[in-house]
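re: ur msg from earlier - yeah i can do the flavin-adenine dinucleotide complex, just paste it... oh wait u already did. ok heres what im feeding in:
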Amino acid sequence: MSPSSTGALAGKFNSEQIGWLEKARVFARGITQAEVIASDKENVFRRDLFEKACSPEFGLGSLPFPTTYGGSGGDYVSFSLVNEEFGRRCVPIMSSLGVHVLSQEPIYRFGNDEQKNKYLMAATSGKMLAAFGLTEPNAGSDTAAIETSAKIDAAGNYVLNGTKTFITSGASADFYIVMARLLDSTDGAKPESGRKSGQITAFIVERNFAGFAIGQKFDMLGMRGYSTCEIVFNDCLVPKENLLGAHGEGRKVALSSLAKGRVTIAAQCVGWAQGALDACLESLQRNYRDGIISADAGGMAAKLGDLAVQTEAARVLTFQAARLIDAKEPSVTVAAMAKTMASDVAMKVSTEAMNVLGMDGLNPELLIERIFRDAKAGQIYEGTNQIQRMLIARDLLK
Ligand SMILES: Cc1cc2nc3c(=O)[nH]c(=O)nc-3n(C[C@H](O)[C@H](O)[C@H](O)COP(=O)(O)OP(=O)(O)OC[C@H]3O[C@@H](n4cnc5c(N)ncnc54)[C@H](O)[C@@H]3O)c2cc1C
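and the outut:
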């Protein structure tokens, strides 16, 4: 089911879902190849494209959320179709948009009316870009090890200290969902051994709060153009109104949205795999036509068939995970399976596409080498694939 024509999708998706895919295609077609390459090369976040995606014309900023707080009222299958298309075309804002949606989820689930009115409406319209701050220099896979601390001051507000790292949209966002360890005492002492003391608690932190700073920016191998960086809290003052959920609910807040986020990542990875496959096919067809190589040279036909099978299998699993979300039966395990398989497939297809095309595979205009670099991150973020496999096994064994 290569989603190359919407006709081929009838029966698999309803007209509303196909409508969202069409919107994503129109959006992607509005970005030139030169812009796609520049965002990667220059490592610059395209705020203008993010705002365009959130405009009423596209309504992608809060696609899978109800209309109550300005969401578009679409389902998760539709959002996955958009993400697949954005991955396929390497749309420069794809990852920031995914994280923007991921960061709204905790506010929908744990926020109060004031927080929803203030942050969701602004996020929906693209007035505010949201980011998600969980990972720290000493706490990646092991989220229970976070050391960023929060203490309550005399006025009942919170004072945060610590550093979050590898934060997508970090240098561009307007607010952040931040998990910190709430200390019992008000004397400001940092937890002696990060994991022993304090309850992990979630906060909404605005970039203009006193004591908030942007730290080191990263010039990464892949996933460039997302202003990924450290965010730093130096006695950062967070008003008591910005506590998200209850004290000690921070991991619940974080993990609940990651289960959906992994389906978003899976859809992006399917798009990458499809994008690499598209480019590989186009290039080979040209070579066949020009008589440069014969159709089955070097087992290429079998190789291509194999890559197409794997891409389709990853797609089926990804949309199964999305459909479970829409059926209000989200499965953390199926989401983990989809994210693991789709990111491994994206890595495999882009690697094999380069093997098949040789030098051509390294041409930035074909996007294969870009996908190859980006796909590596797909295997790492929102939980490494090794950890996902452990979670799947744990679910089987329980
Ligand atoms: C491009 C990019 C964007 C990101 N964006 C964000 C963001 O917006 N917000 C955010 O909070 N984070 C973000 N991250 C961080 C990301 O979620 C972490 O990189 C990820 O959770 C893995 O943590 P780590 O890199 O510290 O690896 P580690 O946890 O140090 O793992 C290193 C290796 O050890 C393995 N390992 C770890 N623990 C175990 C175990 N118990 N058993 C077996 N193997 C284990 C891992 O699988 C991995 O192979 C981003 C990362 C990248 C690369």
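cool cool. The pocket of flavin-adenine dinucleotide is lined by residues 99, 132-135, 140-141, 166-168, 223, 228, 377, 380-384, 386-387 (CB under 6 Å). ping me if u need the other ligands too
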